[in-house]
Every structure is written in structure tokens, then in C-alpha cells.
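ARCHIVE CARD
Drawer: 12
Card no.: 0347
Subject: one protein chain, sequence and derived structure
Cross-reference: see card 0346
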Amino acid sequence: MLRQYWKIKNEISALFERLLPQHAKKEMNLIKINNSNRDELEIYHKLRENAFTEDNSFIADSPKVVNILLQTDIHVKSILATQEYYNEFEELISKKSIPKLFVIDKKEMQEIIGHKIHHNCMMHGIRPKETPLEKLDDNIIMLDEITSTENVGSIARSAAALGVNSYLLPAQAPHPYSRRALRVSMGHITKLHVHVYDDIFSTLTMLKANDYKIFGAEITEDSTPLMDVKIPKKWVMLMGHEAKGLSQEVIDMCDEIVEIEMMDDIRSFNVGVAASILMYQFKNSKKSI
């Protein structure tokens, strides 16, 4: 009798396990696209790179990026994806309260976006509030006149990986929550405290007043080789323009200029690569003040 009881119990448990995914799919309440709701998808076409709305909306794409964002506190307004995406990641999606889950095939998604895509999902989210300058961490990566969206995303990803948790960018640079920067950072910008500044000179002055030492990345007659730099507790690593580097006026504001030792016939690294090398050394150097 007892053996029969456990047999029936196991069969019932197995039945519930088979039925649970079907139940979860119904709970997701997927919305099919039709003429009445198509206008709601305009934001997926309209939001390109630095085009943000008043509510700080942004668009992310690709499963890797979207799935990382779904594991954060980012407010998600909607997802636009294929049935295959929902089937594969329904458990992750169901953990977050998302008002609208639009289901669409890839061909129609491309028509809405307006160009060819290589992924099967997109997400409409709201950027988190910026961190005030005085609330940034002891170690900061700062950009000056950076123009490449890819570099903004690449540096964000390296900073997150190396534990440099504060990111300071100029207002005229590509925003780290622009679609391409998000993709390059793999969504790891969400791990960083972000502050966007308007004037570099007043910002550097305030950082100095808060006891940060400003290090500029540049090759000059007086620059210190990276391996010889003594690292203070609070520091800012300032990276310049991809081609022009740091201006002399900005160099004059820095406390110390640092250069990465390299072969004589090589002028410089890509700014994203240079930032990664500098952050790694600053976080791991045994030479500290």
C-alpha cells in the first residue's frame, strides 16, 4: 500500500512539472501586434543612440544585454521579442513585473525597427538616476571629449570588470545608455555609478576639493611611467579624445600625467585598451601612498 502511495505521488508531481511551463506562459500574458497597438512600438524605431525622451527612456537589444538588465533594478516598460525568446527565458522574465510583453516574428520586428537585426528581442527601459558628484566612489574613470560610442561602452565594461565603479562622462559624449554603448558594455553599465558633467574645469576643481588626485593619461616630457606611479586612496583616471588626447589646459589641471610604457615606434593604444590597462594597474598596484 505504501509503495502504491509513493508511486501515485511521484506521478502527480511529474504531471505538475510538465504543466507548470504552460501555466507560466499564460501568466506572461504576451501581446500580439495588431493595428490597435502598433503605435506603442514606435519608440523602438525612434530611440536611436542618444535620442532619449523626457522620462529617460532607453532601448536595449540582444538577449545577452536584455537578460543582464532583467537581473537589475532597472525599470522595464516593455519587451518586444519573438516567441522563441519568451519560451527560452520565461522564468527570468516572469521574475520581473513588466507591463507589456509584445510578441512578434523577426521579419516584422525588422520592419518596425527599420533595419536588419541579428537578434530576437529588444527592451524599453528607464535610465536610473545619475549619481551626484559627491557620492561617487573613491576610484573614478573619467572621459574628456570622447566621440566613439563603442569606446564609451568598452570602457564601461572594463570598469565594471575591474571594480572601478564610478564613471564620469561629458554631456557632449555618447551616453552609456545609448543602444550601441549598452550592447558593447554587455549591459554592465548598470553596475556603475554614472555622472554626466557639463564643464570639465569646474568638475576637476570640485573633485580636487573632495581630495581626489587627478591622473591624466597622456604622453608628455614629464609624464610618469605607469609602473612607477604611486596610487593614492582616492583617484581619478582621465582619458582624452581618441585622436587629440588631452588638451594642454586640461593637462595643466591634472596632478600627475601617466603614460603606458610601449615600444618606441608605437605612438599610442586605443583609448579603450589604454583605459583598461591603466585601471587594472591602479587597482592592483602594490605602490600606494
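Annotation on reverse: The CA atoms of residues 153 and 161 lie 12 Å apart. The mean pLDDT is 88.
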